[in-house]
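Input/output pair, single chain:
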Amino acid sequence: MEYISTRGNVKGIGFIDTVLMGLADDGGLLVPAEIPAVDAETLEEWRSLSFQELFLKIFSLYTNGEIPEEDLKELVNRSYASFRDPQVAPLRRIDDSLYVLELFHGPTFAFKDVALQFIGELYSYISRTRGEIIHILGATSGDTGAAAIAGVRGKEGIKICILHPNGKVSKVQELQMTTVDDANVLNLSVQGNFDDCQRIIKELFGDLEFKAKYHLRAINSINFVRILAQTVYYFHAFLQLPEEAKGRTVNISVPSGNFGNIFSGYLAKKMGLPIGKLIIATNENNILERFVKTGEYKPGEFAQTHSPSMDIQVASNFERYLYYLLNEDGAAVAERMKELQTEGRIAAEGEELRRVQADFAALGVTNGDCLETIAKYSREKGYLLDPHTACGVAAYEAHNGAGEIGITFATAHPAKFDEAISLLDIRQEFPAPISALSELPQVQTIVDNDKAEVTARLIEFFG
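Output:
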């Protein structure tokens, strides 16, 4: 297994070098040169596996044997030892047609823990075994930053800097990042939105001299390992369905802002996971819904919503899907991305649009509909949804067909977004680790939306 860039000018990269490169040196994103196939017989053999065992099976298809099996097993076991549920990501039955995959049982109560606990262990392993300096740089719309910091804090040989948009994440998300006072952690609070943070990050990774000099490594989903780790729980969710679900079409609804989580499902489906619709749930920042419905991919006006982790207009993983939509033609991808940069939009028309609509369904959920869905499921099902998961459930309701099964990903614990839930006069019990955050002092540096200022802070921190 080798890895190549979506833009065609980086080829023949191994697994560990893919981890370290993050953003490809030609500005594209790294993908496997070939996607391994999983047949029905293999899938059935995997049905009895634990999450950790399934993780090993899937990763072994992609790692080229670069990590000895026993080492990889130890990394995986350490990664999920701190999860509060022994299944890591349990599947909850809500009614005859709806299941919720709870992805919030990790240290920071968000789905990002599933990938980032492993990546933290993997970076530590690479630093130790290859003598690599690991300086992690990432942007977050809320959950990635906390999960990334939790994955690497205190680890020898690693420093991490996270940019988050000042005042545009939930209070719990902010506290989970900024109450960490470890010497290897720097929080930069940017006077802008997430897209501003992400743009600065991509520009810094695109400066190959700066990237090499300061040993920059990616923790965002531009790193393919994030995508692959998330692919595992698509298989895990499908394989947990009860016997009576066999023979029914299974659709998966995914809250998605940066296109990483839903692309993981696209990868799982291309590997052979027999699922029906991949449903993209967005909020009022609905660029992905507009693309699926009209073929136009054009960033619009930024809206602040009750689901801040999806308050994104430029979805960095969209380029990976574009690569497959354009029949794995790197030159065509580079041309489209150049068009996006110069003209502010790209479009899929005709056969391309028909393929997009065969691959995905989508729904942009308003703030009002999000709150209404939370209230409805609390009242009628006795199940409390966080605002992102509520968008996923609303999209499931819009697109799941009669007789079909829907799985919605619960991407965060509702306690992380009490600002929205309290508007409904719903009182929830906070988990102890979240309650304790408000008693801790915060450590963060507020910076302007300015690449030069961020760069200066990084040089001082990374040395």
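The mean pLDDT is 95. The domain at 91-106+225-429 is CATH 3.40.50.1100 (Rossmann fold).
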